[in-house]
């Protein structure tokens, strides 16, 4: 992408301070779509048609290089969060207190495109974050982006995917392209039901997507291995019990456990 794109003509989205912008970008740095998105120099860049949309953060809020993207960018970067309310709840917990102090105002990063995020999460099943990032890059290069119609029709052989993963991706793409799976503009419950009908999309995938795509501030994927390790819980049941004290901000607790070391 052209590094010369800038924010001189910009739209500013107001957010409540503090905002742990660098932590959000760090979390996304292995979870973006190569060739479509880019993260560096404190900004997020996204190719949209022939343009590159740039998002940064300053004292005025989130700065967007192209007007008209405020709603999408606001959802993606959690502009509506009240960090003081989150801090009041999570800062009371010994497991989270130091994390909250280290990264005040941590947000839950969403996505620019719901289908892309679903694909990235399916690719991340049972592999490392780095491996999933590599697979996402290969898929985007093969398909010329991560579009449901293109993925549904593409030859997905030779990308390093298992046969089961290929079938899951194709089923996901066909459902989204055919309108059986609606990822935007509907209640999360409808989307979750559609995802659950796709073979290879299990409970962990839907629970994780509830956090980032469903924007449910109290969603919590208790079976996630990263959360189990970071919390010190011995089982998903124990972690679920532990997380009761984090309501109604369990999704923010998950982000602190994923993204911030104590």
What do we call the CATH topology of the largest domain? Endonuclease III, domain 1
CATH architecture descriptor of the largest domain = Orthogonal Bundle
Please report the total strand number as a whole number: 5
Q: In percent terms, what proportion of residues is strand? A: 5-15%
Secondary-structure element order, N to C: EHEEEEHHHHHHHHHHHH
Globally, the shape reads globular
Contiguous runs where pLDDT drops below 50 for at least 5 residues: 2-8
- Structural class given helices, strands, pairing? alpha+beta
Any idea how many domains? 3
CATH class of the largest domain: Mainly Alpha
Note the gap between the termini: 35 Å
Describe the structure.
By secondary structure, the chain is of the alpha+beta class. The chain folds into 3 domains: 1-80, TATA-Binding Protein, CATH 3.30.310.20; 83-103 and 215-262, no CATH class; 114-205, Hypothetical protein, domain 2 (Endonuclease III, domain 1, Orthogonal Bundle). 45% of the residues lie in helices and 10% in strands. It is built from 13 helices and 5 strands. It has helices at 21-28, 70-76, 83-90, 97-102, 114-123, 129-143, 148-153, 163-177, 188-196, 203-212, 225-231, 236-243, 250-259; strands at 11-13, 37-40, 43-48, 51-58, 61-64. A 5-stranded antiparallel β-sheet has the order 1-5-4-3-2, covered by helices on one side. β3 and β4 (51-58) form a beta hairpin. α5 packs across α6 (129-143) and α5 (114-123) packs antiparallel against α8 (163-177). Mean pLDDT is 94; it is low at 2-8.
